[in-house]
Amino acid sequence: MKVIKVDPEKCTQCHTCDLWCGIEIGSEKKELNNAIHEKPQPVPRVYVEGNNFPLHCRHCEVAPCIDACPNGTMRRDPATGLVYVYEPTCIACWMCVMVCPFGIIAPSPSIHVAVKCDRCRNMEYPICVDVCPTKALALEEREEGATWYGYAPKRSY
Amino acid sequence: MRYIIIGGSAAGISAVEAIRSIDQTSSIELFSGEGTPFYSRVLLSYYIAGAITKEELHFRPLEFFADNKVNAHLGQRVSQVLPESKSIRMGDGREYPFDRLLIASGSSPKIMEVPGKDKKGVVVMRNIDHAQEIVNRVEEMKTACVLGGGLIGLRTGYALSVRGVKVKIIVKSSHVLSQMLDQESAEMIQGTMRQHGVDIRTGRDAVEIVGKESVEGIILDDGERINCQLVVIGKGVQPNVDFLSSTQIKVNEGIVADETMMTSVPDIYVAGDVAETYDLTTGRTSVNAIWPCAFEQGRVAGLNMAGKKAKYEGSFRMNSLDFYGLPVISMGITRIDGNGFQQFQKKTENTYRKLVLRDGRIVGAILVGQVQKAGILATLLKKRVNVSDIIPLLMSHRLNFAELLPLTQQNRERFNEVEYRELSQRPLASRR
Ligand SMILES: Cc1cc2nc3c(=O)[nH]c(=O)nc-3n(C[C@H](O)[C@H](O)[C@H](O)COP(=O)(O)OP(=O)(O)OC[C@H]3O[C@@H](n4cnc5c(N)ncnc54)[C@H](O)[C@@H]3O)c2cc1C
Question: How far is the CA of B266 from the centre of ligand 1 (A)?
């Protein structure tokens, strides 16, 4: 599994990552001038925290959000192990929010869905890594021997 | 290896996934007292509310058993576990042998001894048939009374209210959700529910259910009569252990589990609502009958059954609800009794945050309104780290994980999973 690694020493707090995440992933129109007017407001999946620490879903080896989800909405991509929210079945119970060690799952009151980073699993490259002007974010293989557990359906249902 | 699993709900299915992550070939025989597989109990109230369909109650696809090579015996109750011969016995005398057994038989509603409880229209809420019975009656129902202010009763009451039924909740304690919330937070929920027309009577109990064959009303302990066409009894749950009589398997409140989720008898494991485990907040063993614990315990049991060592650190109660857009999350000990606790509270008009500490460690928390960072508190609770130096941060809406990074680094031995280690390493691409 490839994950996003963070170098806080290189982060200049420019927020390019969350701006682009909000446009590319969060918005309907995928274009800045339109995205800023969208209602509900697009939600970025990366948070620049503690001054210089951009934080995303960490795709835990044993993911408590998958354990807590009462209907299999929180699940893994069977090919990569990346954890994602299957939005059509999310019932906004916030059980995943209750257990996320990193506090990165947003309970969206407007769209009634748990919103979180899926490391752009359907794109060639995560947008935040792509746009970071100082290369504070990098896409790298997780350490050898790492594994993952939990629900990974081969088909959507 | 021959595996047998009793119960095909959260804990049983989680164990199947864990076993199959290691052992793809051994036989798994799964017995479930229920005919309908893979429905999520937690969502039953959403079904009553009309928010989801019956199909959407599924937490796994119907092909799950086939995909995982599980031989499922649905609608078949195990009547006896026979540890000496390492087998189980069915009602009709058939026996099935096992090498490793998992008991994941869950719990059942407690019965309330109140006159009139056998009338038509008096229901409990535990399974899909109960929910269906309520749904079938919704159209003809004007008023429903819920006896008990626990989570299941409240969820059911909320669902009925969303369906346009007049709901009255009768609570013995001074506020609803007395296991989960303190007075302040409970009043916020009660306020919201009342605004939406739900009638909540605290400090009251029902002494009789009246009516001829069907329910026509209830009588409260102060003599008041409330007319209603449905009574939902929500007085808590008890573990299903009837099929263990005359075995050596140790049962207190639930079946006692060790750190590997094994019972007192080798090769027999337990997980979920039927299991009694070490409680991280009280330091005693207890049954924490919640979905996340069932899944986690099921995985630990399944891994150990399949020969991979896994340790269960312990459980604690927690829950999340969102009625009419007011999110509430509660965990651990939230009302202190006795010495040695410290508590911190902060309230605004629409938010509330409370932390309970013992020996500098979080043992409980309540969040109302703003809940996104609840999981950080749950993790600190679970990891049992000393947080006495960072209380202002924990109590503030500024709380975020990056601020806690130094704490996780000071407690490396507890935050040793790859996802934490990775955050302390700079990416290779950045190193020259
Ligand atoms: C209405 C409702 C709302 C809930 N809301 C929440 C919530 O918001 N959050 C939360 O965390 N939890 C909630 N829960 C609790 C949650 O559903 C349980 O913790 C969870 O289902 C436990 O899973 P389990 O596998 O241990 O047991 P169960 O789900 O109880 O399943 C046990 C299974 O074993 C079967 N069985 C029992 N005895 C035998 C036998 N002898 N032979 C064969 N099969 C047997 C039963 O028929 C059943 O199918 C709720 C429960 C209900 C009913």
Answer: 25
B374 and A98 within 8 Å at the Cβ level: the answer is yes
For residue B31, which atom of ligand 1 is closest to its CA? 43
Q: Is residue B212 located within the same domain as residue B287?
A: no
| Ligand 1 proximal residues by C-beta, below 6 Å | B 6-12, 31-34, 41-42, 44-45, 77-78, 104-107, 125-126, 151-152, 155, 240, 243, 272-273, 289-292, 294, 319
Q: CB neighbours of A69 closer than 8 A, spacing ≥ 6?
A: A75, A95, A96, B59
The three-point CA angle B326-B330-B334 to 5° equals 125
Report pTM: 0.97
Q: Is the peptide bond before B239 cis (omega within 30 degrees of 0)?
A: no
What is this model's ipTM?
A: 0.96
Number of compact structural domains in chain B = 3
Instruction: Note whether B373 and B402 are same-domain residues.
Output: yes
Between CA A105 and CA A92 the distance in angstroms is 11
Among residues B305, B335, B353, the one where a domain terminates is B305
**Three-state DSSP class for B109?**
strand
- Please say whether the dihedral angle defined by the alpha carbons of residues B355, B361, B362 and B364, taken in this order, is positive or negative: negative
Q: Which residue of A has its CA nearest to B22?
A: A149
Condensed to tens digits (0 to 9), the pLDDT of residues B26-64 reads 999 999 999 999 999 999 999 999 999 999 999 999 999
Whose Cα sits closest to atom 36 in ligand 1?
B105
* Residue B195, token pair as written in the block: 């605004």
Residues of chain A numbered 11-40 and touching chain B (CB < 8 Å):
none
The larger pLDDT score, comparing residue B111 to residue B46, is at B46
- Contacts of residue B166, defined as CB under 8 A and 6 or more positions apart, other chains included, come to B142, B143, B144, B197, B199
Domain of residue B287, residue span: 2-108+239-305
Together in a domain, B273 and B214: no
B278 falls within a domain = yes
Domains of chain A: 2-141 (3.30.70.20)
- Asked if A104 and B379 count as a contact pair (C-beta separation under 8 A), the reply is no
- CB-CB under 8 Å, A151 with B60: yes
Which atom from ligand 1 is nearest to the alpha carbon of B77? 42
